[in-house]
Amino acid sequence: MTQLPIIEIEQLNKGIRSHDTFKNIISVADIQGGLNIKDTGSGKLYIPMRLNAVLLAVTLSGTLDISLDYTHYFVTPNSFLMIMPTHTFQFEHISEDFKGTIIIASKEFFDDFTPSTSSRSITNYLELRKSPYTELTTEETGILKECVDILHERVKENDHLFQKELIYNSFMNLSYELANILMHKKDKKEVFNKSKISRKEELLEKFLKLLFANFEEKHVVTFYAEKLFITPQYLSLILKELTGKSANKWINEVLIVEAKIRLKMPDATVQQVADELNFSDQSTFGKFFKKNTGISPMKYRES
Q1: 58 pLDDT more than 90
Q2: For residue 118, how many other CB atoms are within 10 A of its CB?
Q3: In the chain, which segments carry CATH 1.10.10.60?
Q4: Which of 3, 7, 71, 108 is most buried, by CB atoms within 10 Å?
C-alpha cells in the first residue's frame, strides 16, 4: 500500500505567514483572515490532507468551512477545533474576517508530554475524535485564549534557559483547562441525550464506523446494510434523513477524498491507487473519479 501523504509541522508552518515556533516541535500563531493562508510550495492548502501533528484552534471571529473525516463543519466564533493525525481534513473556506489562535504540536512533543494519569485523565479530550468541533461560551473562550497567550509568550522566549520546561508547563495548564471544559460538556451532553438517542442515530453511527473501516474494499451499499441487518433501501433512507446524503453518496465521497490524497503522493501511480482502493482496473477507477470530480485522475495529479 502506498503511504499516504502526511503534512509535517515544518510544511504547515510554511503555509502560515506569521507564527512562532520552538524547534519545530510546537508552534503558535494568531490567524487573521483567509489571506494568512498561502501556498506551501507543494500545492495549495485547500486540498485533502493529514497532519503528522495535532492542531488545536480557538476561534474568535469570522467563520471557517472545513471537512473532517468526510463530515462538513461550519466553524463559528467562540469555538474549539481539534485536528488529530488520524483525521483526513480539508479547508474549504476561511472568511476574511476570521480571527483565531492555533497551536500545532508535533508527535515528538506529545511523546515527551506525559501528564499525570492519577487524576481524571487530562488527555481524555484527545480521544474525543468523534467530536473535533466544540462550541464554547464567551467565558470559556476567554479562559482558553488566556492560556494560549501565555504559551505563545513562552514559545517566543528564546533566551530563557528553561524555555522548554516553561513551554511544557504552559501547555499542561492549557490542557487542564481544555479538558475541564470538554469533559463538563461531554457529561452534560451524555445526560441530555441519554433518553433521546434514536435507533436511526445508532444505525448512522454504526454505518460510519463500518464505512471508515471497510471503504477500501467494500464499495456497495448491500455490504453495509447486511452488516446492520437492514435493507439497502432503509439504510439509504436513514442516511438521507439524518445527513442529507444517501449511502451511495457517502461511499463515493469517502472514496473520492481518499483517492485525492493518494493521487497527490509523488511516487503513486494511478494504477496503484486504483488497486489500493479495490477497483477492478484503472479504467473503471478513472471513470468513477471523473464522474464524481469532473476531471481524470491523471489531470488531478498534474493540477
Answers
A1: yes
A2: 6
A3: 199-302
A4: 7
Q: Is the dihedral of CA 289, 236, 208, 245 positive or negative?
A: positive
Angle CA(169)–CA(171)–CA(173) in degrees, nearest 5?
Answer: 70
Q: Where are the beta strands (DSSP E) in 95-198?
A: 99-106, 133-135
The CA angle 203-65-182, to the nearest 5 degrees, is 60
- Give, in order, the Cα–Cα distances in Å from 277 to each of 48, 177, 256, 280, 301: 17, 42, 10, 9, 17
Q: What is the pLDDT of residues 177-224, one digit of tens each?
A: 988 888 787 666 554 454 456 788 889 888 988 998 899 999 999 999
What CATH fold (topology level) applies to the domain 199-302? Answer: Arc Repressor Mutant, subunit A (1.10.10)
Residues of the chain with CATH 2.60.120.10: 6-193
The neighbouring-strand residues paired with 135 are 79
Map residue 33 onto helix, strand or coil. coil
117: exposed, middle or buried (Cβ count in 10 Å: 0-12, 13-18, 19+) = exposed
